[in-house]
Amino acid sequence: ALPTPSSPRLTERDHEALGWLVEQKAATTNQVTTLLGYFGDGPITDRRGAMVMARWEELGLAERTFVWHRKPAVVTPTSECARLMGLPRWRKPAIGTLNHTLHASQVRLQVCRPGSNRGWRSEEQMRALLPSGARIPDGAIVEADGSLTAVEVELTSHGRTRVREAMTSLLSVRNGEEDLFHHVLYLCSPAVHVQVKAVRDELPEHVRSRVVVLPCPTM
């Protein structure tokens, strides 16, 4: 059926924000409200953000779900939204990885704010770029000069051996005769910050300087 004059319609800001959401797979309502401000004319109120998200729901493009007690709702795009943004297949993040997904969204919001001179490549975009079997980072920062920084969000301990293997794998990915990632950025929860720094400090000096370990942004 053709839309009536009163039917919700997508704006340019909607397309930009929904494209971002599809790439990240999920975000909190607070994160989406912040994102809408970045893509618009400046910060918007929570009420205005909720109205935009309600319009997305009415159009069948997003869902809001309360997952954790006293935490903001989680916004996920629908399969219809994914197809609209050019993805033929779509799968919602599993509940076991959802917290990690939301922290990755927070990292992107803070490190690669829309309109800044830094770009971002999502995990899925990196998966398409890297050779089969290569370690896939949680995302990658595209610096102004085109160089890539791999980003890993570490919230829980996976053991020193696995961290070392992941770290050295990312450092060794090649792009022709050069390293694909100039740096690797680890953003860690307090529970694993010391462990990841210790693994970094054990690396040979010539690669140690390419690994940066910082606290993970809070949501």
Notes on the protein architecture:
Helix content is 44%, strand content 19%. By secondary structure, it is of the alpha+beta class. The N and C termini lie far apart (41 Å). The protein has helices at residues 12-24, 29-39, 46-58, 79-84, 95-111, 123-129, 160-172, 190-201, 205-208, and strands at 27-28, 62-65, 74-77, 119-122, 139-142, 148-154, 174-175, 178-179, 181-188, 211-215. Strand 7 (174-175) and strand 8 form a beta hairpin. The strands form three sheets. It has a five-stranded mixed beta sheet. The protein is built from nine helices and ten strands. The radius of gyration is 19 Å and the shape is globular.
Features of this protein?
19% strand; 10 strands; alpha+beta
Describe the SSE topology.
Blueprint: H1 12-24, E1 27-28, H2 29-39, H3 46-58, E2 62-65, E3 74-77, H4 79-84, H5 95-111, E4 119-122, H6 123-129, E5 139-142, E6 148-154, H7 160-172, E7 174-175, E8 178-179, E9 181-188, H8 190-201, H9 205-208, E10 211-215
Parallel strand pairs: 6-9, 9-10
Antiparallel strand pairs: 1-3, 2-3, 4-5, 5-6, 7-8
Helix pairs in contact: 1-2, 2-3, 7-8
Give a count of the beta strands, DSSP E runs of length 2 or more.
10
Secondary-structure element order, as H and E?
HEHHEEHHEHEEHEEEHHE
Main β-sheet description: 5 strands, mixed
| Rg from Cα | 19 Å
Sequence stretches where pLDDT stays below 50 over 5 or more residues: 1-6
Mean pLDDT: 92
Percent of residues in helical segments? 40-55%
